[in-house]
Design brief:
Blueprint: E1 2-5, H1 6-24, E2 27-30, E3 36-39, H2 41-57, E4 63-71, E5 74-81, H3 115-126, E6 129-135, E7 139-147, H4 151-155, H5 167-172, E8 178-182, H6 186-198, E9 202-206, H7 209-217, E10 225-229, H8 238-249, E11 255-259, H9 264-272, E12 276-279, H10 284-295
Parallel strand pairs: 2-4, 8-9, 8-10, 10-11, 11-12
Antiparallel strand pairs: 1-3, 4-5, 5-7, 6-7
Helix pairs in contact: 1-2, 2-3, 3-6, 7-8
Length: about 300
């Protein structure tokens, strides 16, 4: 958390998306804001980036506007577009993982449907309100409301009394660790890194087993858990890559394998090497719960 000028963030994103907007013939307008916010700049920037990306994706012509306005002690950062719009029955579903209103066949070339899901998770994490308005055929507006309180008001409050936790509370406490992600799809890899970084984990992403070993050879960091896709390039699948990591470290690291292959042979391979298996598409909440369980188990 730190103080920063909203204008810097807005114009940085304008520069990032101007070329994409021009390529589509869309007018991208960014209104200046003279206020200063106290927030996590990186996470807030990711929210706005995803909202802008979504607006440009679903606006075949017309305009996209990024601007701010004060609302009852908060700053509402808003993205408006003149795109296809969203029917009212879809307004909740669009924030679900992998949901895409115009991609029922789930064509990978049209993205993964994770943008708004990540927006919702960050808003929940930061305690910010997310609003959406839309009219089919006329466009949509997404807004995130950020508290305008200053760092001073936060530090002046009395610290909470020290709590003594019993054993059950300690067991249920959130655990963070170093997660090595082995995934060749850059979009999936970055999404996994972002989501688990939000939950307090240190994440490193590599495209294949060879890159994982190269990262280990650099030294200094030992992962607590390996999260790998089963189908990897360059002749080594996810299980083999994870076993190479275990062998290199001489540790029985917990391993989670993500796969869309439900064949008996693949499932047997994963089980024989004492790895957890998740069938794609994966719900991040379920994956997070298993990571918490595995991190709670001592591994030597």
């Amino acid at each position: 958390m730190a103080s920063f000028e909203v204008n810097d963030l807005l114009h940085r994103l304008k520069n990032e998306f101007s070329f994409q907007a021009q390529a589509k013939g869309i007018v991208l307008r960014v209104a200046s804001c003279s206020l200063t916010l106290y927030s996590d700049r990186r996470l807030l920037e990711q929210v706005i980036r995803n909202l802008l990306s979504n607006a440009l994706k679903y606006t075949p012509r017309g305009k996209v506007l990024l601007g701010c306005r004060r609302r009852h002690g908060t700053l509402s950062i808003e993205v408006w577009d003149t795109g296809v719009g969203i029917v009212s029955s879809e307004l909740q579903a669009i924030f679900q993982e992998y949901h895409q209103i115009d991609n029922p066949a789930r064509e990978r070339s049209r993205g993964l449907g994770l943008g708004l899901s990540i927006v919702q998770r960050i808003a929940d994490l930061m305690g910010y309100r997310l609003r959406v308005y839309s009219q089919p055929g006329k466009g949509s507006a997404f807004a995130i409301e950020v508290d305008l309180s200053t760092p001073g008001t936060l530090t002046q409050s009395h610290p909470p009394p020290t709590q003594v936790l019993d054993q059950e509370e300690i067991q249920s406490a959130h655990r963070s660790g170093i997660i090595l992600i082995i995934e060749d799809d850059p979009e999936v890899r970055e999404a996994l890194k972002l989501v688990f970084s939000e939950e307090g984990h240190d994440t490193t992403g590599v495209p294949d087993g060879a890159a994982a070993l190269e990262w280990l050879a650099e030294g200094g960091v030992v992962p607590d858990l390996v999260l790998a896709d089963y189908n990897l390039p360059n002749g080594t699948n996810g299980v083999q890559a994870a076993m190479n990591v275990r062998e290199k470290l001489d540790r029985e690291l917990p391993v989670i394998i993500l796969t869309g292959d439900i064949s008996t042979e693949t499932s047997r391979d994963i089980a024989l090497h004492h790895c957890e298996q998740f069938i794609k598409p994966v719900k991040f909440k379920d994956l997070s719960n298993v990571i918490q369980r595995l991190l709670a188990i001592p591994h030597v």
